[in-house]
Amino acid sequence: MRSFREFLLEEDGVGVVEIILILVVLIGLVLIFKKQLTALVNDIFKTITDKAGKIS
Known about the structure:
single chain, 3 helices, mainly alpha, rod-shaped
């Protein structure tokens, strides 16, 4: 059985925790700026649609 000190020094799960924290921050930012992101994406798709009609 491993000692408590070895357990504290173990870093196997650190990468998983970092990835989870990054995802939580990104999801939080998306929720905070949802309205602005939606407007930006709609504007981009509108511009693409308008420009695509002029190519033909």
